[in-house]
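Appendix B. Chain record.
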Amino acid sequence: MTLTASPGHAAGPGPVRAGRREWAALGVLMLPLLLVSMDVSVLYFAIPSISADLRPGATEQLWILDTYGFVLAGLLVTMGSLGDRVGRRRLLLGGAALFGVASVAAAYAHSPGALIAARALLGLAGACLMPATLALIRTLFRDPGQRARAVTLWTAVMASGISLGPVVSGALVEHFWWGSVFLINLPAMALLLLLGPLLLPESKGAAADGPFDLLSAGLSLAALLPLIHGIKEIAKDGWAPLPALGVTCGLLLVVVFVRRQARIAHPMVDLTLIRTRAYGGSVLVNLLAMVATVGFAVFLTQYLQSVLGQSPFEAALWSLVPAGGVLVAAPVAAVLARRVDRAYVMGGGFLVASVGFAWMAGVDRATPLWVVLVACALYAAGLVSAMTLANELALGAAPPERAGSAAAVLESGQELGGALGMAVLGSIGAAVYTAAMPSSAPAAARETLGGALGAPPAVLDAARSAFVEAMGGAAVGAALLMVVAAVVSVALLRGRS
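Structure tokens predicted for this chain:
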């Protein structure tokens, strides 16, 4: 599998350097990545309008919000492996077409069931798009330095999309109807379908002629769906038999899936690659980073809205401010990694994030907003810098013929890390909140801050103070986790390239 060099490529020995064509292709790849990541959070402001129009029940509303993420997570491994076999560009373009069709279906859905089905199709299309974008970066950029810059941009766009989703949906719902949050996908997908065949090379893996294992595909979906769903349910409502059973069944199916991959001739997941420190270690530290990122984001959002009294749209805008630290820190980390062992740079990034979380642990209700935002910028800068280097190391460690499945496993680890973050940090925060609330408060107010919003002023004031303490407890947990991630980075990834 080779790339045709475009004008401006360096000649001679060593990796072929990318030219204008490849960088233009990278810009095209960022379009689907931005929209796929935005769709995780784009319904946050649209759901009240959807509820008023479609009248979904409580369970249907939850599925409208969660179906996209569950299907996306459950099918990443399958679609990454499929791309290695049928061609990553072909899968990318097919995913773009399906994403456009599903977006129209979602925008004009006339019932909760139709919207849930459309969101499931969007998840399927997103699972085609995400690993293909990262795998094509592995194909387009053979030079390690250029690939590092490309992966830095990929990571920044993915993180930005999740943050931009609420802002974009808030602006659109304010001026248009709720279906507009889906229709914004259409121009970008049309542009990808137009320019993709011209700019993107087709590539397949060495296993392209091998049979596609439908049983393994079913096992991966059957394992990840109940596992991630169960963890999120436990994080939201506490321990219950049904979510616990889902997590248990998911873990058992993961074991069955792994054992099957070890036995078959053409596995979906290369277990040998996962056992290498460069790849397996990168997946692990990325998972730890997502535990802190997603787990703490829930507290910050509630703090801005329920403690400081900001509107959802205003809170979404303020939550974009820490991205400034990311835009500075990620390129600096990439430059440092070319001069210093990247394991130490990653470890340093995690320690910077730990300092940011420790700073957040000291926040109280009198703390100025700018101090909170600086602390957030600090931990966001450290986290994204470390994640960028981990993504680049994992992608570089994977052979080109396995780029799709390698990218999918990396992204599945991130999805699992996000679910674990909500469970672990959420449990810490819930325990601190309950302990900080006076025993005389109503039962609903002692469980969550949301349960205290309709309570008397004295109870609500106590709940807000207790929530700030809970956020501090979660921040302490995240800070300690980042220290662990720094140690793991140095221990597993030192000297790896």
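Further analysis of this model is presented in Appendix C.
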